TrEMBL record:
The modification 4-aspartylphosphate is found at residue 53. Residues 4-118 form the Response regulatory domain. Residues 130-228 bind DNA. It comes from the Bacteria. Pfam families: Response_reg (PF00072), Trans_reg_C (PF00486). Keywords: DNA-binding, Phosphoprotein, Transcription, Transcription regulation. The lineage of its organism: Bacteria, Bacillati, Actinomycetota, Actinomycetes, Micromonosporales. PANTHER family: DNA-BINDING DUAL TRANSCRIPTIONAL REGULATOR OMPR (PTHR48111:SF4), REGULATOR OF RPOS (PTHR48111). This is Response regulator transcription factor.
Amino acid sequence: MTQRVLVVDDDRTVSDVVCRYLEHAGYDVTHVGDGVSALAAVATEPPHLVVLDLMLPGLDGLEVCRRLRARPDGVPIIMLTARGDEADRILGLQLGADDYLGKPFSPRELVLRVRSVLRRTGGEPATAPPDVLRDGGLVVETGPRVARLHGTELTLTVREFDLLVHLMRHPVRAFRRAELLERVWGWSFGDQSTVTVHVRRLREKVEADPANPRRIVTVWGVGYRYEPGDA
């Protein structure tokens, strides 16, 4: 089955290049130039992934991201941002974007990012066998990509799910943020605040008290580790 990608960008030059590269990589690509059209397109035929520019006429990319995250299907989102828009980029990650690229960017890199996110969502063949990870009331099924806490299904983004799985598969081991960026995101370099934002969001979903985390703990001067228990 061909994966569908929705490109949302009002810059026709950028969108033409992006669409051409994604189509060449084998994706079924649809392009719209504003936020309202993007929401309508997702409602009509949900794509496997959305490439979303922040600077859009009318409804901006952050609001589009917020509304997409309110949907139950959890469509993955890769944001396109201007180099200097760090605050907007971090806010986008807090809203649930799965990845980002700063403009100007390499179209080839974007294709690789799209492929990476789709692989993690099951849109492309996964290499790891399905299994079930348990920590007291927290149960994570990696095959169907479902996480439950005390029987209630958690709404996790692609990166949040992958980060949780990675940490649970390596309990008690401390990981530097750079290590997590490479192992979970597949980036050999990048802004490590991405990891911090995702850890914060994940704690809000799996911790009884996110301000005093019991599962995903901070190792000062190093990074983070997962502490299994019976909560």
